Amino acid sequence: MPHGDITHIDIPVSNTEQAIAFYHRLFGWEIAEIPGFEGYPMWRAPNQVSGGGLAPRGEGFTQPRSYVEVDSIEETLAKVAELGGTVVMDKQPISETSWWAIFTDADGNTIGLYEGVTDAG
């Protein structure tokens, strides 16, 4: 995906099994845990492009969060600060070839960043 594309959406859930059944029946999403990502079932839309995960709801994660693919998380976080946003979580590894980070914009919207390639099976 090119720099700037939305690549993933996490949905916070309190009851994973209930959420899996709900979103599968509502939208037809295929939802499954993937080896290496246990406890984090991932969904894929029927278009086979859109997708995301069902993540545990918790403090600071109560609304869906979109992730935008970027060429460089470090450069993007530097721009976030220049433009009046706030870094919530610095670059963290997902795998050996992929990373993520979180920031808020000047209006307090929380957005995730993604860099790299993740083999999710």
TrEMBL record:
Q: Which residues cross the membrane?
A: none
The record places domain VOC at: 5-116
The record ties this protein, via PROSITE patterns, to: VOC
Superkingdom: Bacteria
Q: Which CDD domains match?
A: SgaA_N_like
Q: What is this protein called?
A: VOC domain-containing protein
